[in-house]
Design a protein that fits this description.
Helix content: 40-55%
Distance between the termini: 50 Å
Radius of gyration: 37 Å
Largest sheet: 4 strands, antiparallel
Structural class: alpha/beta
Number of strands: 28
Number of helices: 27
Length: 890
RNA sequence: GGUCGAGUGGCGCAGCGGGAGCGCAGGUGCCUUACAAGCACAAGGCCGGGGGUUCAAAUCCCUCCUCGACCACCA
C-alpha cells in the first residue's frame, strides 16, 4: 500500500479545542436527558485499561464502539454516562516496576514491601494518566470528572467487603493445592492466565527396578517428558485393565537416584496405549499425578523451591534449576544403564502470560473461591435472555465457560494489589477476615499480622460495574445504583469473556441483590494484523492507533475501524479503510463548505421539500435514518458506516448538491433559492447528527458554523438524533422514480460522450422517448439534466423518434438518444448493444423458465411470483426495444 | 480431541433463501470554482470442491479441502 499522505491541516489542535468545549459544557457528566427517553439512564462502564498500558488497536476499536453507543444515546435524550477508570493490573505493573528498579540496580527484596508499593504508586502517578489521555484524544465522551481506579480507597473497601462476605459464607477457603506457579514472578497464576506454547521435546524412557523381580521382570519402563521430576515420584501407575501389568499392581519399585521404594498401582487415568503404559507419578509437580496420588493416598514430595530449583536433600541435584536437573538426571540414568531410550515428542507447555516463563505445577497453600454457589445464577440470567450477547453465538461460549468452571485460585504472591484481608494471631492462633484493618488480636490482644498475598486482579475487576457507582458504602441504596444500575452495554474483546464478563455477572448477582450488571454484551472482533496474525510486539506486525490518528484524524480512524466490524471473531486490519474514511470525512467537510458558501441571504424556516429533488433526498434520508437505527439496535457497526457512507457520498454529494447548484446560482428564483438553502441546511444537519457518534469532531466543527434555529442545542453532542418516525412522512416513491429517471438520462449522455472520447464540455442534443407518466416526471427536470448532463437541448416524448446520427441508450422504460452528428461508430454501437442483448436474453430466459415452473407458481409466495412476472415483462420490453434499436442500425 | 469463525472480482470485505455489491488497486477521460484525499465513464466474479433439502441456494443441511481462533489433553 502507498505511504499514507499527511493531513493537510492539523487535526489534533482542532480536535483538542472541540474536546475542551464538550468538557466545559458538562456533557461528559451524566446528562439530564430530554424527550421521550428523558427519564431513562444509559450507562456504560469502560473495560478499565491497565495503568501500564498504552492505547492499542483493541482499545481503539472498543472505545469507538462504546463512544458511538453513548453519543447516540445522549442525542436520543437518555441520561447518559460513560464511566472511565484504570486497573492497577497486579502482575503487569509489578513486573514493570521490578524492571525499572532493576535498571537502577535495585532489587524489590532489598527495599521491602512498603517501599516497593510506594514505587508502584509512583508509577501509577507517572504513567496511569497516559492511556486516559489517549482515550481523550480519540474523542471519547467519558465522564472524566469522576474517574476511578481499582485501588482507590472506596474500591479497596469494596473488594474487602466482598472477600469478607464470601469468606463468612464459606465461598472462600484456603487449601493446599497444586497450582500453576511462575518461578520468575514467584506467584501462582490462574488456569485461565496460563498460555500454552507448543514445543518440540522428548519422551525419555526410564527404567525403574522392581524391589523384587516378578516372573523374571526386573524393571518397569516409564515414559516421561519431564525426567527431572522423578526425584519427587511417589508411585507408578498402570491402567487397571492392562493385562501386561495386572500382576504387578501392589508390588514396589525402587526409585533410582533416590532409593525410595514406591508402589505400583492402578488408575483409570492411565492410557495403556501411550508410552509403555506405565506412568511415573509425581503428585507435587503434575495436576493429574496430584489427582491420582490423592486417590491412591500417595505421599506428596515437593522437590522444587519457589524459583524451581531443586531443594536440599537430593545430593548433587540440589540447587540445580529445572533444566540443569533434567540434564543431570538423564545423564545419571544413562550412567546407571537405566535410560531405555529417547524419542522425539512435541508437547505444549504452560507459560506465564506475563513473563512467558514456563510454569511449574507446584504445591502450595492458596486461597480459592468455590464457584459452584455462584455460577448457576450467572448462567440463568444469560439463559433466560436478561443478558444478551452480540453476536448471539457468544451466549454458548459463555455458558460453556461457566459449566466447566473450577474453583478459582485468587491468591497471588505479589506485593502490588489488594492485600488479602485475612489476619492471623501467632500468639493464640486466632484468625479471621476483616473489612477494617486490624492491629491487635480481638482474642488475646497480641499484635496480628495480615496475610502476605494479594488478590488476583480479576477479583477486583469483577466489582467494576458497581464498585464505581457508590456500592461500597450504601450498596443498592447508593443514588447511582438506584438510578442507573444495571448498566446498558458492555463492550469487550472475546478473550476476557470468562475471566471478566462472567465474573462480573457472578459478582453482581451476589452483591447487588440478584441484579445483572449490564443488559447487552458486545463482543467485538479481535483486530488482527494485515497478515492475519495477532498483533504483537515480537512479530512486529502491530499498528499504533496514535499514528493512525495522526495520519487520518481521530474521526477517520474511528469510522475506518467501525467499517471493518463484522460478526466474525477476527477482523484483519485494513488501513486502506481508514484512508477511505479520512477521505470521507474530508468529503463531509467539503460538502459543508459548499452549503456554507451558499447561504447568503439565508432565512431560517421549516424545511419543506418543494422540487422532486428535494422530495427525493428527504425520502432517501427517511429510509437511511431507519436503516441506521436498525443497525445500531442490532449492534451492526459495519452496516451503520456503509449506510452513511453511500448516502452521504453517493446520494447527497454526488446528486443532491449538484442538483442544488442551479437553484442557488445568481438569477435563480429567490423563493426556490431560499427553499433550497433551508433544505440543504436541514439535510446536512441530519447527516451531521447521523455521523456524529462515529465522527464526533468534524461534525461538531461544522455544526458550529451552520445556522441554527432558535432553541437548538448549543452543541451537536446534545442535539437531537434524527427521528425516523417523524421523517417517515417524507417517503416518496414518485420522487424517487423521477430522480432515477434523471440519473439514467444523465448517465446515458455522459456514457455516450465518454465512449466517443468527446470532451466533457461538448454539449449534446438529447431526445428521450418515455411513456407519458415517466415523461411527465422528467419534463420539469430539464434544467437538472441540462446542468449535470451538459445537454444542449432536451426533448421528451412518448413517440419521440430517434434522430439521425444519434446513439441510443435503452433503459428501464425509456430510451435516450444522444446526438453525435458524424461521430457514430455503427459497428461499435452494434457490438455494445449485442453484448447487452446477450445479458438480457439470458435474464429473460431464466425468468421464463422460472415462471413456467409449476412448482414455483404453486408454492412460491404470491408477491414473489408477481414481482418476477413484473421483472420479466420489464426485461422483455427492454429487450424488444433494444432489438428494435439494433435493427435500426441496419 | 471438542467448540467456533472464515473461504465471494487482483487485494480487503459486505450480503446469508427469490435480481452478485462496497472499498482499495488497476484502465480511460477530466484542474467541470465544495472537494484531484476529487469528478465522470468503463472493465473485472461457474460466490473453495462434492452431495443434499427446496418451486428456488452465495445464502439452509451433510461431507471434504484450506486457513484461523478458543477450550481440553498431552506420563
Amino acid at each position: 500500500m502507498a505511504e499514507p499522505k499527511k493531513p493537510v491541516d492539523d487535526f489534533a489542535a482542532r480536535e483538542r479545542a472541540l474536546f475542551e468545549a464538550w468538557r466545559e459544557g458538562g456533557y461528559f457528566q451524566r446528562t439530564p436527558g430530554f424527550g421521550e427517553h428523558a427519564a431513562e439512564p444509559y450507562t456504560i462502564v469502560i473495560p478499565p485499561p491497565n495503568i501500564t498500558g498504552v492505547l492499542h488497536m483493541g482499545h481503539a476499536l472498543n472505545d469507538t464502539i462504546q463512544d458511538a453507543c453513548v453519543r447516540r444515546a445522549r442525542m436520543r435524550g437518555y441520561q447518559t454516562r460513560w464511566v472511565i477508570g484504570t486497573d492497577h493490573a497486579g502482575i503487569s505493573t509489578q513486573t514493570k516496576v521490578d524492571k525499572r528498579l532493576a535498571d537502577q540496580g535495585i532489587s524489590r527484596l532489598e527495599i521491602g514491601r512498603e517501599a516497593f508499593v510506594e514505587e508502584c504508586y509512583k508509577w501509577y502517578e507517572e504513567y496511569g494518566t497516559t492511556i486516559v489521555n489517549q482515550v481523550k484524544g480519540m474523542g471519547c465522551s467519558c465522564d472524566y470528572s469522576d474517574e476511578h481506579f481499582t485501588l482507590e480507597p472506596a474500591y479497596v473497601r469494596a473488594v474487602r467487603k466482598l472477600f469478607v462476605d464470601w469468606y463468612e459464607h464459606g465461598l472462600i477457603y484456603r487449601g493446599k493445592r497444586i497450582v500453576n506457579w511462575c518461578p520468575s514472578c514467584t506467584t501462582a497464576i490462574a488456569d485461565d492466565e496460563a498460555e500454552y506454547v507448543d514445543e518440540p521435546g522428548h519422551l525419555w524412557y526410564l527404567r525403574y527396578p522392581l524391589v523384587e523381580p516378578v516372573d523374571g521382570i526386573e524393571h518397569l519402563v516409564v515414559a516421561t517428558t519431564r525426567p527431572e521430576t522423578m526425584l519427587g515420584d511417589t508411585g507408578v501407575a498402570v491402567n487397571p485393565k492392562d493385562e501386561r501389568f495386572g500382576h504387578l499392581v501392589g508390588k514396589k519399585v525402587r526409585l533410582p537416584l533416590v532409593g525410595r521404594e514406591i508402589p505400583i498401582f492402578a488408575d483409570w487415568h492411565v492410557d495403556a496405549e501411550f508410552g509403555t503404559g506405565c506412568v511415573k507419578v509425581t503428585p507435587s509437580h503434575d495436576p493429574n499425578d496430584w489427582a491420582m496420588g490423592e486417590k491412591a493416598g500417595l505421599p506428596r514430595i515437593n522437590i522444587f523451591d519457589e524459583t524451581a530449583h531443586v531443594v536440599e536433600g537430593y545430593g548433587k541435584f540440589s540447587g540445580m534449576d529445572r533444566d540443569e536437573a533434567r540434564e543431570a538426571v538423564v545423564a545419571a540414568f544413562e550412567e546407571l544403564g537405566l535410560l531405555d531410550h529417547v524419542e522425539d515428542h512435541d508437547h505444549s507447555v504452560m507459560t506465564c502470560y506475563r513473563c512467558h516463563t514456563k510454569l511449574e505445577p507446584w504445591e502450595s497453600e492458596q486461597w480459592f473461591v468455590a464457584v459452584d454457589g455462584l455460577k448457576e445464577a450467572a448462567a440463568r440470567v444469560v439463559e433466560d435472555g436478561s443478558i444478551q450477547f452480540h453476536p448471539a453465538r457468544w451466549k454458548q461460549v459463555y455458558l460453556d465457560w461457566l459449566a466447566n468452571l473450577k474453583d478459582w485460585c485468587i491468591s497471588r504472591q505479589l506485593w502490588w494489589g489488594h492485600r488479602i484481608p485475612m489476619y492471623y494471631c501467632d500468639e493464640c492462633g486466632w484468625e479471621d477476615a476483616s473489612v477494617d484493618e486490624i492491629e491487635v488480636c480481638p482474642a488475646c490482644g497480641a499484635p496480628v499480622r495480615q496475610d502476605d498475598d494479594v488478590l488476583d486482579t480479576w477479583f477486583s475487576s469483577q466489582l467494576w460495574p458497581f464498585a464505581t457507582m457508590g456500592w461500597t458504602e450504601e450498596g443498592m441504596d447508593a443514588p447511582q445504583m438506584r438510578a442507573a444500575y444495571p448498566t446498558q452495554v458492555l463492550s469487550t474483546a472475546r478473550d476476557i469473556m470468562g475471566l471478566w464478563v462472567a465474573r462480573m455477572v457472578m459478582a453482581s448477582m451476589y452483591c447487588c441483590d440478584n441484579t445483572i450488571p449490564f443488559e447487552d454484551v458486545i463482543i467485538h472482533p479481535t483486530v488482527m494484523a494485515a497478515d492475519g496474525k495477532p498483533m504483537s510486539k515480537s512479530r512486529g506486525n502491530g499498528v499504533d492507533p496514535l499514528r493512525l490518528m495522526e495520519d487520518y484524524g481521530a474521526d477517520g480512524m474511528r469510522f475506518g475501524l467501525l467499517m471493518q466490524v463484522t460478526g466474525a471473531q477476527d477482523m484483519k486490519f485494513n488501513e486502506a479503510k481508514l484512508e477511505s474514511s479520512r477521505n470521507f470525512a474530508n468529503k463531509v467537510k467539503n460538502a459543508s463548505r459548499f452549503v456554507l458558501m451558499n447561504l447568503e441571504g439565508y432565512e431560517p424556516g421549516a424545511p419543506e421539500p418543494v422540487t422532486p429533488a428535494d422530495r427525493w433526498i428527504f425520502s432517501r434520508l427517511a429510509k437511511v435514518v431507519a436503516a441506521v437505527d436498525a443497525a445500531y439496535d442490532n449492534f451492526e457497526f459495519g452496516e451503520i458506516t456503509r449506510e452513511l457512507y453511500s448516502f452521504v457520498w453517493n446520494e447527497f454529494c454526488d446528486w443532491y448538491i449538484e442538483f442544488s447548484k442551479a437553484r442557488l446560482a445568481e438569477g435563480a428564483d429567490p423563493a426556490d433559492r431560499a427553499a433550497c438553502q433551508r433544505n440543504l441546511v436541514f439535510v446536512l444537519g441530519q447527516v451531521l447528527r447521523l455521523l456524529h457518534p462515529i465522527m464526533p469532531f468534524i461534525t461538531e466543527e461544522v455544526y458550529g458554523e451552520l445556522p441554527r434555529e432558535e432553541g437548538a442545542a448549543p452543541m451537536l453532542i446534545v442535539a437531537s438524533w434524527p427521528d425516523a418516525q417523524a421523517l417517515a412522512r417524507f417517503a416518496d416513491d414518485e420522487a424517487e422514480r423521477a430522480i432515477e429517471l434523471v440519473c439514467e438520462v444523465v448517465g446515458a449522455v455522459r456514457s455516450a460522450r465518454s465512449r466517443y472520447g468527446l470532451s466533457p464540455r461538448t454539449e449534446l442534443d438529447v431526445v428521450v422517448k418515455a411513456p407519458a407518466a415517466d415523461g411527465a416526471l422528467l419534463e420539469g427536470q430539464a434544467p437538472l439534466i441540462a446542468k449535470l448532463g451538459r445537454t444542449a437541448s432536451l426533448a421528451v416524448g412518448a413517440d419521440a423518434a430517434k434522430p439521425a446520427g444519434s446513439v441510443a441508450h435503452v433503459g428501464a422504460g425509456l430510451e435516450v438518444y444522444v446526438g453525435l452528428a458524424g461521430h457514430v461508430d455503427l459497428s461499435a454501437e452494434r457490438a455494445r448493444m449485442e453484448k447487452e442483448r446477450g445479458k438480457l436474453e439470458a435474464d429473460v430466459a431464466k425468468l421464463d423458465k422460472k415462471l413456467s415452473n409449476e412448482g414455483f407458481l404453486a408454492k412460491a409466495a404470491p408477491e414473489v411470483v408477481a414481482k418476477d412476472r413484473g421483472r420479466r415483462d420489464e426485461l422483455a420490453d427492454k429487450l424488444a426495444r433494444l432489438n428494435a434499436q439494433i435493427a435500426e442500425l441496419g
